[in-house]
Amino acid sequence: MDIASDQPRIVVIGGGIVGLCVAWHLARRGLAPLVLEARKPHAATTGNAGAISHGSVAPLAMPGVLRQVPRMLTDRAGALHIPLRYWLHAAPWLLRFVASARTSRVEGVAEALAALLFGALERHKEILAAEGATDLIREQGQMYLYRDEAQMAKDAAGLELRRRHGLRIEVLDRAGLAALEPDVAPAYTRAVFLPDHGSCVNPARFAEVVAQGVRRMGGEIREAEVRAIRMDGRRADGVRTDAGDIPATQVVLAAGAWSARLLAPLGIKVPLETQRGYHVMLPDAGVTPGRILSPADRKVFISPMEEGLRVAGSVEIAGLDAPPNEARAQLLLDDLRAVFPQVRTDGATTWMGHRPCLPDSVPVMGPLKTWDGIWCAFGHGHLGLTGSAPTGAIVAAAIAGEKPNIDLAPFSAERF
Q1: At what angle do helices 17-28 and 120-130 cross, to 10 degrees?
Q2: For residue 332, what are the CA distances in angstroms to 277, 299, 348?
Q3: 307 partner at 20 to 30 Å CA-CA among 227, 248, 261, 321?
């Protein structure tokens, strides 16, 4: 079929989990969206840790983050690293990141994230129940591991922020930790248990299920590289792709870390960086935790999955175009052995993906103020899976003319 002959409809740019959830809710309303997926090799959807964390309202930039910047720049083995060749390019984003760590801004960010993520687990279950795939969700909570009280005290501000926004937190001693996770190394003597958090046991299958639902309800998903949003005066009327122009009544920009490139020609400069996250997948690790574990001294997530055990993390800020750094992925095996010294690593495979990250940790969501017919749904950082289902529900409702259940102003693309 000639792609240019299509009838205008809502076009969603990006077939990652956020774009798919927006499309799913549009399709459920009978709006038959067209999703354009470029199949970029390093999208974050399939390789994330699987965490569904509605209580993750503390931004990455917390008060005191300035003290961490020298290590980000110099420690190649650090949990968050910026390579020397990328320092100059990353500097403007890093300055914004540090500036967003002031106390007043952190409180505003937490309020915005709490409003977005409230009920996230239920939103995921809503989609999966309709698609007959609730087995993808595990509701066994999540656990943060600490070596001692002093290490736990370093996270006190973030934990208190989460508590104030309604997250149930249980502090465990070594006996309580071992009762839930007996295989964890004895060096970890304290834990914070989040019983209401959940996880997805196969993010790739999750995305496939949502895509099937979009098609089942009359939507369509195609491969196409979007090169520009086509404008008629001040209004979007389609997209330009490597396969030709596609007309549209509305355009939803959900292209993850690539989204800012499509907004730049419209004069909208969004400070979007990519957190290049890595994971290692172990098909036969010999240990099976009952829930997602995160050792605080390692800043990684250890996730039991359908396919085995996944350890994910090791963030670097190095841009969209550099190849994966295998050394960063291999660091994750050391992180895993710190928690499970007995783990088996035979058959391990590695992966790298791009998380779209804004300096204040608040995603861009809702309509553009200065251009008509363009909606945004990107920039969720490390909360892409968690935020996908609620973002889909909110953005689709707004497009359909329904009143969203949250104020979209804090998520505006023009706030920068």
Answers
A1: 60
A2: 11, 10, 11
A3: 321
Looking at per-residue pLDDT, the higher value among 360 and 42 belongs to: 360
Three-class DSSP category at 138 = strand
The alpha carbons of the chain give a radius of gyration, in whole angstroms, of 21
CA angle (269, 275, 281) in 5-degree steps:
150
Which residues have CB under 8 Å from 220's CB, separation 6+? 32, 33, 34, 35, 214
Q: How far, in Å, CA of 281 to CA of 284, rounded?
A: 9
* pLDDT at 53 (0 to 100): 97
| Residues whose CB is less than 8 angstroms from the CB of residue 401 and which lie 6 or more positions away in sequence, other chains included | none
First-to-last CA distance in the chain?
41
CA 209 to chain centre: 18
pLDDT above 60 for 232: yes
Long-range contacts formed by 394-398: CB under 8 A, 24+ apart: 394/116, 394/365, 395/22, 395/25, 395/252, 395/365, 395/366, 396/22, 396/24, 396/25, 396/26, 396/28, 396/29, 396/31, 397/25, 398/366, 398/367
As a whole-number percent, the residues of the chain with pLDDT over 70 amount to 97
Q: List pLDDT tens digits, range 69-90.
A: 787 777 777 777 888 899 999 9
Does the structure show a pLDDT above 60 at 92? Answer: yes
The pLDDT of residue 237 is above 50: yes
**Residues with Cβ < 8 Å from 261, sequence gap 6 or more?**
none
